[in-house]
Amino acid sequence: MTTEIESILVENRVFPPPADLVKQANVSGMEGYQALCDEAKRDPDAFWARLANENLVWTKPFTQVLDESRAPFYKWYPDGRMNVSANCLDKHLGTPAENRAAILFEADDGQVTKVTYKELHARVSQFANALKSLGYQAGERAIIYLPMSIEAVVAMQACARLGIIHSVVFGGFSSKSIHERTVDVGASLVITADAQMRGGKSIPLKDAVDEALAMGGCDAVRKVITYKRAGSDVQWHADRDLWWHDVIQGQSTDCPPVAVDADHPLFILYTSGSTGKPKGVQHSSAGFLLWSLMTMKWTFDAKPTDVFWCTADVGWVTGHSYVAYGPLAAGVTQVVFEGVPTYPDAGRFWKMIQEHKVTIFYTAPTAIRSLTKLSEADPKVHPKSFDLSTLRIIGSVGEPINPEAWVWYYNNVGGQRCPVIDTWWQTETGAHMITPLPGVTPLKPGSCTLPLPGIDAAIVDETGEEVERGKGGFLVIRRPWPSMIRTIWGDPERFKKTYFPEELKGYYLAGDGAQRDKDGYFWIMGRIDDVLNVSGHRLGTMEVESALVAHEMVAEAAVVGRPDDTTGEAVVAFVVLNGPLPQGDQAAAVAKQLRDWVAKEIGPIAKPREIRFGENLPKTRSGKIMRRLLRVVAKGEPITQDVSTLENPGILEQLAQVR
Ligand code: 6R9
């Protein structure tokens, strides 16, 4: 572990919560927040029991709240049984929510489809019955590789209904990623689409699945179900392939939800870590759903009248907690969007907020930064050209939001009326952890402010001791919470070592550096490990390095992040080729070849922005690559650090040249 924590700009402006929100929010005023925090502190078990009893429907009530006997493999509500899909859909039947729109789906081309809770329940049940008739059962694993669509939500919910564990692979990932995940989870089912539509273009999906399954080791896969989205040509394997519209034919819209243990895995979602191999983060059923739902109510102040829009793809954790599960459990109407924010123009988000009368909007800083640039350049796509008066809360997730972007978002999208809710959390935490509450927290741009009630967040040193206010350290969570990661699928040792290192007193180590100011507000300073954050997506430097060295031309590679105004960080790769140093056009051609290779190996988001070639990499005498120096070179700054421990200091000059 290293604590290379850079100091950050601390904003001094404070924005008090709007008075009307303080009055009627689900958590009202600092006293309301404090009362919940005190309740959780006084008797954590009683607090978590109360929330689970009041907010979830149990098939068999739990008698124990938390089993710590095998820590850090915590079990929550161990003897309770329930079903996630029943808690998102069935519970609304026969209530006023039944005829409310659950999903307003807007396709890439602008076409809108509305699905009520009752209709969604029927669709999920029908698809679940199709899976059942194919012999699928609780505990099996399904890979879902679908575009943003009603079907993506239906597929996830149908799996949950039967206790099938899903693993969603982001549609922008390569066939190699699908292959790795299919093998790792031992999937017996793949659900995909012929293609996805983004920005007016159709991008094949089924082809990538075919390629992945042809790579070998996927023998457990019995069926591939394909949803026809674009009507594009696909290859067909008669023994294995089925159309979505065929399998649901004649299936009943009544499918009793299968009760599972509270800790039955709901899903496995892969995320980058500090090694080359992404980790399969395993989440539970009850604990995960409870916190997704509570944070909908607390963080977003969700009410039945809200129109909620989270712009995240279901391929990321945000699309699990705040598209596929949380909003449905909360009974709100949500917008699901297939396309991209810049098509047909950069006013798309604002136009959609206006048309669907969105009240709660949740997006990523990278989107805000890129739309700021485009809006300021063209008044037609500027948020001020749209009626955004229905908005009451605007949220941010994925990376630190710089004060400049925060203020632009607050002024131009939120009309200086809506609090900017900067939510800090991770794939592993399942749902929000440190975040302002709209009717409670005075905001400071750039700070995710205070932990949610029940979340014991702290900043500690290498020994687990809390550091003084104003000092940087490791962000940890000292007590378990219901939506926490249960294990890394198939690798419990790695789970223990990564998240509960021995020297940290059994605390959960988030992997972020942070500090607290005099008011106890948290300021996240970025990752302490070799994980980059590109457009809010986690990317391991090792992952990109492994992809590069897998190319026959590459002898060695080191990857670092460079700060970037729009994407947060950009990938810069330093590469040593097998053979002479390329020059001029040849260097450009090889760089292009390698960038395309990385896109194929991992996905387009992992493509290095820049590739620099050298005859070697800067190394210590013990052979360790000095990434610290490469980060300076990548920024184009002069090296002022001591390089005397380097075996080959001259190499830095060579790498500094952009060829
Ligand atoms: C939900 C999600 C997690 C990492 C996390 C941190 C960064 C996320 C943030 C934030 C500062 C915020 N991060 N939200 N940093 N402020 N509000 O993004 O999950 O993809 O697993 O990424 O993202 O570094 O450790 P995930």
From TrEMBL:
Its EC number is 6.2.1.1. Keywords: Acetylation, ATP-binding, Ligase, Magnesium, Metal-binding, Nucleotide-binding. Its cofactor is Mg(2+). Residues 543-624 form the AMP-binding enzyme C-terminal domain. One of its GO terms (molecular function) is acetate-CoA ligase activity. Residues 99-481 form the AMP-dependent synthetase/ligase domain. ATP binds at G398, E399, P400, D422, T423, W424, W425, Q426, T427, D512, R527, R538. Acetylated. Deacetylation by the SIR2-homolog deacetylase activates the enzyme. Residues 33-88 form the Acetyl-coenzyme A synthetase N-terminal domain. Signal peptide: none annotated. CoA binds at R198, G199, G200, K201, T318, S535. Belongs to the ATP-dependent AMP-binding enzyme family. Catalyzes the conversion of acetate into acetyl-CoA (AcCoA), an essential intermediate at the junction of anabolic and catabolic pathways. AcsA undergoes a two-step reaction. In the first half reaction, AcsA combines acetate with ATP to form acetyl-adenylate (AcAMP) intermediate. In the second half reaction, it can then transfer the acetyl group from AcAMP to the sulfhydryl group of CoA, forming the product AcCoA. This is Acetyl-coenzyme A synthetase.
